[in-house]
Design a protein that fits this description.
Strand content: 25-35%
Number of strands: 9
Oligomer: single chain
Structural class: mainly beta
Number of helices: 3
Distance between the termini: 50 Å
């Protein structure tokens, strides 16, 4: 009989008494633009994707290799109640209401306090660099008399850090689960790309020389 694959996820403290469940909650998320918190956000969705190319060979029944075909793209979708008299662009510290007015990109910073606070360096900080509005919609709902706006935002690049380092290098902070150095594959270039040193894992010195 196969043994149950215990994941080791903490519920938890080392002592059974006083155990607690650690779950990521939306109340632990703070969204900042230009050092200003953005309130009344109903949804904040992030989607990262990139095309993968399958390499085939004549006479081979299957895929020889799968490799990235294009750089990864990051898109955001934001839905916000019109609150305190500010439109969605205005709430993001922009000096305009209509997106055709945008001339300068901006950064969005999302702070996840699941593993700590900004002061103790335990928060996970994700920065969406050089954002552009792609669409903006406004709806008037009769049911509850609220006015909401939604926008799609194109992100030039993304980076994530915790306590000034790649997030995966500090697993286990604040009672989170730590896979251990033997439980995960660690690559210096991947971590540098995750931290934002490079735009992507293939954007590092020596690539052409190493390949050819």
């Amino acid at each position: 009989m196969a043994s149950y694959p215990y994941t080791g996820t903490l519920f938890d403290s080392e002592a059974v008494t006083g155990a607690k469940t650690r779950t990521g909650l939306s109340t632990q998320i703070v969204v900042y633009v230009n050092n200003q918190p953005v309130g009344a956000i109903q949804t904040f969705q992030e989607r990262q994707q990139r095309a993968i190319k399958r390499i085939y060979e004549v006479g081979t029944d299957g895929t020889v290799e799968a490799v990235p075909q294009s750089p990864a793209t990051v898109e955001l979708t934001v839905n916000r109640i019109v609150f305190d008299g500010l439109s969605l662009p205005e709430s993001m510290a922009r000096g305009f209401r209509n997106i055709h007015s945008q001339r300068i990109p901006f950064d969005i910073v999302v702070i996840d306090r699941f593993t700590g606070t900004e002061e103790d360096g335990g928060s996970i900080v994700t920065t969406y660099h050089n954002c552009w509005f792609g669409s903006l919609g406004r709806s008037y709902t009769v049911n509850d008399y609220t006015i909401t706006e939604d926008a799609s935002i194109t992100v030039e690049s993304i980076s994530t850090e915790r306590n000034g380092a790649p997030v995966a290098s500090s697993q286990g902070v604040g009672g989170g689960r730590d896979l251990g150095s033997e439980g995960r594959q660690i690559d210096a270039v991947e971590q540098a790309a995750d931290y934002g040193t490079y735009r992507g894992s293939l954007d590092f010195p020596g690539l052409i020389k190493a390949a050819f």
